[in-house]
């Protein structure tokens, strides 16, 4: 059976909007990270994109879900979430667990991302504390979004079409597993270096 690769207009515009946010995040992050190491520049690019997604896309989703639901809402952002809901129907009718997680994501994760951008740019001592906190929150959000659904047989997920499964579910959600995982590793390495440096300095003065 041939696989249909055509994109509908709504799917196309949704992907264009997501791509525009990614480009904006990368441009802003790389500019803020000018003169810093490659790891920090790309971390800033991700964090700017992360903050934009939480505030520009997920913020309106929370509002529309609290005053009604996405199914009965109009506008560009509502259309984007209606498109995503073709892969995960919980986003269409204000599922309490999803909305609760998104409130936490917008308020806590969005704020942490902005504070972390500041901490990296200004080289604050609490940078890795914020980075670890944000990454744990992002991973927790993905876990609580999908694991309870998996336990009941994933009745709300549509994996029958390549776009819904590989792009909407795997790629877009996988980004918030892979990249926070890499940032956690970066924090681990940097904190270990600081500890080793402090330990070595202490031995010299004994």
TrEMBL record:
Domain EXPERA: residue ranges: 39-184
A biological-process GO annotation: sterol metabolic process
Sequence intervals crossing the membrane: 12-30, 42-66, 98-121, 128-146, 161-185
Keyword field contains Transport: no
Topology of this chain in the membrane: Multi-pass membrane protein
Main location: membrane
Lineage of the species this protein comes from: Eukaryota, Metazoa, Chordata, Craniata, Vertebrata
Signal peptide location: none
Localization annotation: Membrane
Keywords, comma-separated and alphabetical: Membrane, Transmembrane, Transmembrane helix
One Gene Ontology MF term: cholestenol delta-isomerase activity
Protein family membership: Belongs to the EBP family.
Keyword hit for Transmembrane: yes
GO annotations of cellular component type: endoplasmic reticulum; membrane
Protein name: EBP like
InterPro entries, alphabetized: EBP, EXPERA
Domain of life where this protein originates: Eukaryota
Species name: Otolemur garnettii
């Amino acid at each position: 059976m041939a696989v249909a690769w055509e994109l509908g207009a709504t799917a196309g515009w949704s992907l264009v909007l997501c791509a525009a946010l990614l480009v904006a995040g990368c441009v802003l992050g790389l500019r803020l990270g000018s003169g810093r190491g490659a790891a920090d520049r790309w971390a800033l690019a991700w964090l700017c994109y992360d903050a934009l997604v939480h505030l520009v896309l997920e913020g309106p989703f929370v509002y529309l879900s609290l005053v009604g639901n996405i199914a009965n809402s109009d506008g560009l952002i509502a259309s984007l979430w209606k498109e995503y809901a073709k892969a995960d129907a919980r986003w269409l009718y204000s599922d309490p667990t999803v909305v609760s997680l998104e409130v936490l994501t917008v308020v806590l994760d969005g704020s942490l991302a902005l504070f972390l951008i500041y901490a990296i740019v200004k080289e604050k001592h609490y940078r890795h504390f914020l980075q670890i906190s944000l990454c744990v929150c992002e991973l927790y959000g993905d876990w609580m979004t999908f694991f309870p659904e998996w336990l009941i047989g994933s009745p709300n997920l549509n994996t029958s079409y390549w776009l819904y499964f590989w792009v909407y579910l795997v790629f877009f959600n996988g980004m918030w597993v892979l990249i926070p995982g890499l940032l956690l590793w970066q924090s681990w390495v940097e904190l270990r270096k600081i500890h080793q440096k402090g330990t070595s300095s202490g031995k010299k003065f004994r």
